[in-house]
Amino acid sequence: MISRLVPCIAAAVAVYVGEGAHAQLPVNAATLPAPADSYATESGGFLLSIPGVAGDFVLFGDGEWQLRPDDTARWTAVAQSAAAVDRDLFVELTFSGLLQPGDANHPPAGAPVTTLDAGAYTPLGPVDPSQWRYFTQVTGTITGLRAYDGARIDVANLGPAQVGDGATNKNALSGLACDLILTVVQAPTSASFAPTGAAQLRAMFAPDLSLCATHVDDDPQVSGTAGRTAMLLPGIADDYLWLPSGSWAESADGTATMTGTLQRQGDYADAWQLDLTLGGLTLPGDVSHPPVGAPDQQLLATIYAAQGGPIDPSHWRYYTTASGSLTGLGINDGGLVQLAAASAFQVGVGAAQGNQFFGVGGTLTVSLQQQPLARTVVATGDATLRANLATACILPPPMILTGNGQSIDNVGDAVLQFTGTDLGFVAQVALGPYILGDDQRRWFDGYFQVVDHETIEVSVPQALPASFYPMTMLNPTRSSNQIGVTLVEPATRTLATETERFVGEVQNLVVHQGDVQGFAFNLLLVSFSDQPSFAPGIVDLQIGAQFSDVQTLAVLVQDPVLHTSILSTQIPPILAGYTLHWQAALMDQTIFPLLPTNARSTQYL
After folding, report:
1. 3-class secondary structure, 169
2. What band does 2 get if pLDDT is binned at 50, 70 and 90?
3. Whose CA is closest to 316, among 90, 88, 156, 59?
């Protein structure tokens, strides 16, 4: 199954150097769990470790650090237990009492805490604790979500929070470490939450973090409705989804970008490419927070903090400007729509107006710049854009309902078809140990094609051993139920190859001996002509124009176990614009007549 852990942690890390009093303190930054490196003397890889609850909370959404002009900082994150994916916590902390190198009380009592290997510290290593910054006071709250719904926890610091290179004591990179005292004000409704000691916060700074953007499935207990939304274009369609997912990234300069393909669940040919940039970041505590017209609160009143619920709009941040476009795909090819902010985009837990996930939502003005070539569209109002945002895509599991137990030749062009629910989000198909992607040019290795939201076709890899294979389908985070298919050897002599190739690509020619018994080899024949050739008692071909235009490209011995032979060759530029016709003639122990396969044609682009 595709990993749900935060990807590319080490690659995302950056050391921040600011200006003036904020040197080595990031102003706006993403935060990630701090992994252990070769200097570490203790385990890493967690964002929060809470004794008596779970030691494996990793980042699930948000993960934003903001340093304010008054030298206070705000950190928010949605953390999730790696072992129990329904156990989420929304953490909001304020850091104050900044002490910097050169200040009279630097370092504060109890600091620094240094547990890396001695070789990590100056003058031997890269970590210099004398340059660390400290916040002497940390206050905030933790709100339980989903399985922890109902939990309210007050947070205070046990000792100073230290910030700098190596400050996490997990690695030599830029990060934040703090031990926290948790006071359970209100326990979760169902799951247990009983800390037995101080929690550890170990966060690593990164310049930005790309989150997965997916459609919003309404939770009726939260929204009072049951629906599915990503983009609504009044007058055009109201069922556009991120397929299979989009991308959201907030940057240190206070901007955010949102990109992805939006397709109608009811018609995959109706699609748009979204490219959107947002600005005008407004944070809690800013004079202009919340912006005029915000927040947009469409959930049940009891879900909001004002009535004791888990979602507090005062925590949300906003982007007040937006600019971007929808570029037509499929039946919208040639179309272009310009977008601008019609409302502030709100970002936070519950902000997407459907459930308790961290998300984003807002409206956009729509200005049609160019009609699609194949149809005319008329927008009758502002577009609505919503998304769940998470490090691991929030998607329903695919469910295969039909297609179990099918059989298919292990050489040839036949495909398997399956139907089910939410198959449109599938990103990979696992056939036994083989992983198939959606690149149809990889015919030899196998691929899948989403036909519509309930239908997938699978072309299996060529020349696998005839056997039973388990099959599952995977979206970016979830796996389907397991079914099985059987690959069998063709009953007749078969040649298979790609129907088109670009110059420079590899072409694969696969020959199965079918009904030929025992040892065999084949002559792999090629011609520019699809006219037949016939020699009585010797061979009867579908190509070659009565042998006037036919060449033997190779003589291949059939594998005695798999009964196949394979030739892979790179297409030279000289073939661009031509079509070649292929056929194999097998020779068994009787020598003549040669036993031909079917003929195939390949166009070169």
Report:
1. coil
2. very low
3. 90
